[in-house]
Amino acid sequence: MESSTKELGLYIAYGVILTMAVIPIYAGSFATIKSMKRPANAPKPKKSDNPLEDSDDEDEPAVESLSSGDAYLFPVIGSAVLFGLYLAFRYLDKEYINYVMTIYISITGCMAITKTFLMIAKAITPKSILKHVSKYKVTLSKRSKNISHISFTVIHGLLLLSSILLTVYYGYTKNWVASNIFGLSLSINAIQLILLDSFKTGMILLTGLFFYDIFWVFYTPVMVSVATNFDAPIKLLWPRDIIDFVVNKASEGRFTMLGLGDIVIPGIFVALCLRFDRHMSWKRNPVGSFRSTEFPKPYFKANLTAYILGLGLTMAVMHVFKAAQPALLYLSPACILSALITAAVRGELKDLFAFTSEEEDDKKKKKEDKKEKEKEEESDAEMIIEEEEIEITTTTTTTTAANDNIEIEQIELEDEGSEENENPQKVTGSKKNTTSSRKRKSNKRK
Length: 446
Prior knowledge:
Oligomer: single chain
C-alpha cells in the first residue's frame, strides 16, 4: 500500500512538473508577438484605453535578437559558468555562495514577478474596475527632447509591493512554492526577452546545448552537483510524494526538479515558431490587427506538442533507469525535427530558413550606416594627414624665411661698416665682403 502511494505521488509530481514547464512557454511565446516589427502594410494599432497598457510602446518595441554568433558561443559560456560554480561549491563555503546568489536572483526575480503579475492583471481585471484607475506618467527629458518615460497606476504599485513581500518571504524561508513562483516568472520573462533571429540560429543553439547537456550530465558529476547544491530559484520543485508530504510532512526534503534551462532554451524556439506562424499568416492574408493572436498556428502547435512528448520521454527514461537525464538530449531533436517535418509537409522549407526577425529594410539600413561610418572615418583620417602636411610645409617656410632674414641682416651690417671706415685697407676688405655677399645672393637666386 505504501509503495503504491509513493508511486502515485511520483506520477503526480511528473504531471505537475510537466504542466509547470508548459505554462511559461505558452505565455512567453504569445508575449513575443508584441516584439515583432509591424509590417509596412499593417495598420497602425489603436491606442489602448487600458491604463495598465503602455500604449506609447505598442507600435515599435525595441528588442535585441540572438544571432548565430551568439548561439555558437552559448554552450562555451554556459560550460565556463557551470564549471566555475562547481569549483566554487567544492572549494568555498556553500552557504556563502547561496547567500550571494539568492540576493542577486531575488532582485532580478522581484522585477520578473512584478511583470508577470502585471500580465495576469491585464488578463483578469474587469474593465469596469479599470475605468476608475488613474494613470500617471513621468517623463525624463533634456533640452525639450524626451529621453525616456514611465507610466504607472496604483495597481502597478500594489503589484510591486506584493513582489517585494514575496521576495523577502522567500529569502527568509526558502519555501519551495515561492521558489516555483520565482522560477515561473523568470522563465516567462526570459522567453520574452531572448529572441532568436532565425531558425538557423535556433538549430545551432539547440544542437550545441544538446552536446553540452550530454557531456556535463553523463560524463561528469558537475551538472547534478550544481543542481543539488544551488539553493536558488533556478529550478521547479515538487514533492516526490505529495500525499505523504501533505499528511505527514515526512518527505519534506525529497523533491522532483526541472532546471529552468530545460524550459527557456526550448521555449525560445517554440516562440520563434509562433512568430513564424504570424509571419506566414499575415503574408497570406494581411487583414486585421497584426498584433492579434487569432491566426493559424501549425508550427507552434507541432513544436509545443513535440516539447511535451520530449519532456515526457525524459521523465519516463529517468523513472525506469532511476538516474538523472539530460532533458535537452530529448528536447533538442524533438523541437528541431518537429519544425523541419512540419515545413516539409507544408512545402515551406524555403520560407522557414528565409524567415528572420529583422526586416530587409533594417538590414539595408544597417549596411548603409556602416558604410557611411567607414567613409566618415576615412575622410577624418585624410583630413588629419592633410593638416600634418600643412603644418610641416609651414614650418619649413618659416625656417627658410628666418635664415634669409639672418643673411640680410649680416649683409646690411657689413655694408654699414664699410661706409663708416675710411682706411683704404679696410675699405678693400669691405669690398671683398661685399663681393662675397653678392655671390651668395646670386647663388640663392639660382
